[in-house]
Amino acid sequence: MEDLKKQLEELKKRLEVLEENIDPVDEVMLSIKIRLKKKLEVLPELDEEKAAKVLKALANPDRIKIMKMLSERPMGFKEIKDSLKVESPTVSHHLKLLLKTRMIRKREKYEITEDGLLFLRILRIISALEEGEDNV
């Protein structure tokens, strides 16, 4: 029993050292990997039609800007409108689609969801991969 306790303590120390040495980028990647793994365990088969509709709904620079702004802090409708410098009906349309796809939610203010944050990270990874291909 004492031997097991010593081994456990040694493992705890090693884990602490590993955690201290994790690069922030690695930490983000580990977080993404864990969340994706959890989601993939319970996800149904891919519905191509539904996936295409979601991607089409998100395929707009202003909607991506809204998500980026909300990833920094929750914002009200007027703040979003003023930042984008577009008319209210346009902002309403963008917010409606982002709410429908569950990329954002509305509480006191609009805020990004975990899915929205994950989507932004995926976009950043895709952008980084595209930049890497330009250098090849």
Explain what this protein looks like in three dimensions.
This is Winged helix-turn-helix transcriptional regulator. It comes from Pyrococcus horikoshii. GO terms for molecular function: DNA binding; DNA-binding transcription factor activity. The protein is mainly alpha-helical and 136 residues long. The chain has helices at residues 2-20, 24-42, 48-58, 61-72, 77-84, 88-100, 114-134, and strands at residues 104-106, 110-112. It folds into 2 domains: 1-42, no CATH class; 48-131, Arc Repressor Mutant, subunit A, CATH 1.10.10.10. It contains 7 helices and 2 strands. The chain has a two-stranded antiparallel sheet with strand order 1-2. The protein is elongated and about 70 Å long. The termini are far apart. The model has no long low-confidence stretch (mean pLDDT 83).
Give the N-to-C terminal Cα separation.
57 Å
In N-to-C order, the SSE pattern is HHHHHHEEH
Structural class: mainly alpha
Question: What's the helix count?
Answer: 7
Helix content: over 70%
Report the strand count. Answer: 2
Report the principal-axis shape. elongated
- What is the domain total for the residues? 2
Mind telling me the C-alpha Rg? Answer: 20 Å
- Percent range for β-strand residues: under 5%
CATH architecture of the largest domain: Orthogonal Bundle
Which fold name corresponds to the CATH topology of the largest domain?
Arc Repressor Mutant, subunit A
Major sheet description: 2 strands, antiparallel
Order of neighbouring strands in the sheet with most strands: 1-2
CATH class of the largest domain: Mainly Alpha
Keywords: Coiled coil, DNA-binding, Transcription, Transcription regulation
Domain HTH arsR-type: 43-136
Coiled coil: 1-28
Organism: Pyrococcus horikoshii
